[in-house]
Amino acid sequence: FNPEANLYPKNTSTPGIYELDRRIEKIIKNPEIKKGVLLVKEKKFTQAENLFRSLIIQLDGNEKKLVYYYLGEIAYLENRFDEAIVLFDKALSIEEKFFEALVKRAMSSIKVGNYNDALVYLKKAALINAHSFTVNFELGKIYFLKNHIEEALNAFNLAIEITEDLRASLYKALCLYKLDRIKDAVSIFEKIA
């Protein structure tokens, strides 16, 4: 039984991509922040960024960390990963155990090739919630990229236990292939093809 099963929709082959959005949307109370989130979802990044930047001077604490998080999210979505790192760090300076910001900070570090930095942030996030698909999936990716295939396989297996996700299955098959477990890899490839 997964108490967080509602974070992962059943009508998609990649339910893990919804986890962080569904987590953070539960804690947003401010209508202006909700408006900005809707603009982000509509890919109206300039409007959303302008709204969030105007809110920074008006808000504090929990709401301000959310604004920095979404500014970081916009930068991430626009492939401005160095800027995203700075913005996620600002959110984390307000609350160092801000789970979603830790994960997105790690994902931004992966994008700039700083895998060791990403591991630090993902391990912090795992201490908060070890049963997160995204944390385990991203850990698996880092281990895979660093050629630590057994660790990668373990992380992808954990991710798949949390929710069946095509991406994690694909990586699992790649790990098995690299470990010369060709028959097992082919079996997974056939299932997902």
List the topology elements.
Elements (H helix, E strand, L loop, with lengths): L18 H7 L5 H11 L3 H12 L4 H17 L3 H14 L4 H13 L3 H14 L4 H13 L3 H14 L3 H13 L3 H11 L1
Helix pairs in contact: 2-3, 2-4, 3-4, 4-5, 4-6, 5-6, 6-7, 6-8, 7-8, 8-9, 9-10, 10-11
Architecture overview:
This protein is mainly alpha-helical and about 190 residues long. It has 11 helices and no strands. Helix 2 runs parallel beside helix 4, helix 3 runs antiparallel to helix 4 (about 60-75) and helix 5 (about 80-95) packs antiparallel against helix 6 (about 100-110). It is elongated and about 60 Å long. It starts with 18 loop residues before the first helix and ends with a helix. The mean pLDDT is about 90.
Outline:
With 193 residues, the protein is mostly helical.
Which characteristics define this entry?
single chain; 193 residues; mainly alpha; elongated
Which residues sit in consecutive blocks of at least 5 with pLDDT less than 50? Answer: none
Order of helices and strands: HHHHHHHHHHH
Q: What is the number of strand segments?
A: 0
Radius of gyration: 17 Å
Distance between the termini: 28 Å
Largest sheet: none
* Helix fraction by DSSP (H/I, runs of at least 4): over 70%
Could you say which overall geometry the principal axes of the C-alpha atoms support?
elongated
Structural class: mainly alpha
In terms of DSSP E residues, the strand content is under 5%
Individual helix count: 11
Mean pLDDT: 92
